[in-house]
Specification:
The complex is a heterodimer of chains A (275) and B (172). Chain A is built from three helices and 14 strands. Chain A is α+β, with helices and mostly antiparallel strands and 275 residues long. Chain A is globular. Chain B has a single domain, classed as Arp2/3 complex 21 kDa subunit ARPC3 (Orthogonal Bundle), CATH 1.10.1760. Chain B contains five helices and no strands.
Chain lengths: 275, 172
């Protein structure tokens, strides 16, 4: 009897939670609960960090040699590219000055970074989310983009006074408008259909040129008063494979994210300066 | 009983914090060890279905709050896990360490299927191959590894209730 009542209460909670707005009573109570628990979560994260690092170290050790060889080759390539790009950047700045070019908000200028620690991860395999230790008291608000030094992580989807929930780019509900840096092909990066850590670049026309290894960055569009939640220029990933079939409307592009979502420890929340 | 309830409530708060800050970051394929589930099952085996269901409900509520997840979702699954583990404890024995493996194995499978079903109903899907190979198998393996030590911890905190004295007819 008691178990049946508890099951009914749980079902009622799920129903009310889904039906009410984000400012509803249950959401509010949950935020207060998290605010109370957050100091303990931060303390727990500090205690757990050595164990987590050990696990990460052991996991990374597998395949470290192969990765080392690959990275050495990549460093050589990147050195050559750096020289070319430094020349291009200086030329770009000079030409922009000549044209008096007016630009929208771009990354990283126009944003203040709130560096914070990842303190928790919900135990479900279905929701790709993390909890961070910065909240509204640090200036973080809903829909603020979150990055690491490697690239885009996701978006703040819930905020308490001293914590926030970040929905990762690999979550089924996430999508970001993006462009391929090399060709300018535009599309939408979202969760892949099979592997939860894989991304796809969808809605890229079949006549666009995209090749393996191309860099995908956020598009940061603006249309009237509406603009993308993500500023232009945040690296998202590299093109892993490109395919297309006659029956498809768009190219099939798989993207390898630049961020390792399994070992997120610190992130930066981008807070717009003009807010 | 009151002392047991207080101990269980405190243990579940600590377990939820450990789950969110440590256990959920230990990932094998897509599976994680589930400290809270194993503890709920352990307590239910020792204290029966009613106590197991209440502890499961409380644990799920705490877990949903500290991870900002849909309120009630984990409560529902852990209430059922606690109840059925308690029933299993009643029909097997509360004094052996072995039922924990069976209960944890069955509980993890039931929890995974229940979770998949609820998330499917709420709009989150997962490929079948990813569910079986990526989530279910690693989760069962990791939870079975946790079963003995955590059941031992439960037995230390919640002493098994004294065995009922049986009437034995004298041998003729």
């Amino acid at each position: 009897m008691v178990a049946a009542v508890l099951v009914l209460v749980s079902l009622a909670l799920i129903t009310v939670y889904f039906r009410e707005s984000d400012e509803g009573a249950l959401h509010g109570a949950q935020r207060i609960g998290l605010s109370v628990a957050m100091p303990f979560e931060v303390a727990g994260e500090r205690v757990a960090r050595p164990f987590r690092d050990s696990w990460g170290w052991a996991s990374d050790l597998i395949g470290a040699k192969d990765e080392n060889d690959k990275l050495r080759k990549e460093v050589e390539e990147l050195r050559q590219r750096l020289v070319q790009q430094q020349t291009a950047v200086s030329e770009n700045e000079r030409l922009r000055a000549l044209l008096k070019f007016v630009d929208g908000p771009t990354f990283p200028s126009g944003f203040d970074g709130v560096a914070t620690r990842v303190v928790g991860r919900p135990p479900s395999a279905y929701n790709q989310e993390v909890l961070i230790a910065a909240g509204s008291s640090s200036g973080v608000q809903r829909n603020d983009p979150v990055v690491t030094k490697d690239g885009l992580v996701g978006l703040v989807t819930d905020v308490t006074s001293n914590g926030a929930k970040v929905t990762l780019l690999t979550d089924q509900s996430s999508a970001v408008s993006a462009v391929v840096l090399e060709s300018g092909a535009a599309g939408i990066v979202r969760h892949g259909p099979s592997d939860s850590s894989a991304l796809i670049l969808d809605r890229v026309s079949k006549d666009e040129l995209v090749t393996e290894g191309d860099l995908v960055i956020t598009a940061g569009w603006r249309s009237g008063n509406l603009e993308s939640l993500y500023p232009r220029g945040i690296p998202v990933g590299t093109v892993k494979s490109v395919g297309q079939q006659d029956v498809d409307l768009y190219k099939r592009i798989q993207v390898t994210p630049l961020v390792n979502f399994d070992s997120l420890a610190e992130v930066i929340v981008l807070v717009p300066r003009n807010r | 009983m009151t002392a047991d309830a207080i101990k269980a409530a405190a243990l579940m708060v600590v377990a939820a914090l450990v789950q969110v800050s440590l256990a959920s970051t230990i990932e094998v394929a897509e599976g994680h060890p589930d400290v809270v589930l194993v503890l709920v099952i352990g307590i239910a085996l020792l204290r029966g279905p009613l106590f197991g269901a209440v502890v499961g409900f409380w644990a799920g509520l705490v877990l949903d709050v500290v991870s900002l997840e849909t309120l009630g979702l984990t409560s529902l699954l852990l209430t059922l896990a606690g109840y059925f583990a308690g029933r299993l404890g009643d029909v097997t024995t509360k004094h052996s360490a072995h039922p924990s493996l069976v209960a944890v194995g069955l509980g993890t499978i039931g929890f995974a299927f229940g979770s998949a079903l609820l998330h499917f109903m709420l709009g989150s899907t997962i490929a079948a191959s990813e569910f079986f190979v990526g989530v279910l198998l690693p989760s069962v393996a990791l939870n079975l590894l946790l079963a003995y030590p955590l059941y031992g911890l439960c037995r230390r905190i919640f002493q098994p209730e004294p065995r009922e004295r049986r009437e034995v007819s004298p041998a003729v």
